[in-house]
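Protocol step 4 of 5: obtain the predicted structure for the target chain.
Materials: sequence only (see below). No template structures provided, no constraints applied. The aim of this step is simply to have a reference model before the mutagenesis design in step 5. Sequence pasted as it appears in the construct record:
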Amino acid sequence: MAVTKEQVMHVAHLARLEFQENELDGFTQTFNNILDYIAKLEEVNTDGINPTSHVIDVKNVFREDEPSSSLSNEEAMKNAPSSEDGSFVVPRII
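Step 4 output (structure tokens):
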């Protein structure tokens, strides 16, 4: 399945990208190369292979979740640029 220039322009429009006319040939070729590579990957026999999220065993190293002391409200507010009634004051967004 080959990608045409028109399809590249359509995808560019959807992604709000603007290509110059001289760039379209290069992007069309790049997209086609990517699709060719994916087609080659689809030829690989994966029967009996369990799905994985990583090709090597990855193990997160977490520490035990143990309660500890935290900052007091006064300590937390000490470095705040602006506070009011024990809360951070932030700029209004909406």
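Step 4 remarks: The chain has three helices and two strands. Helices lie at 5-14, 21-42, 73-78.
Proceed to step 5.
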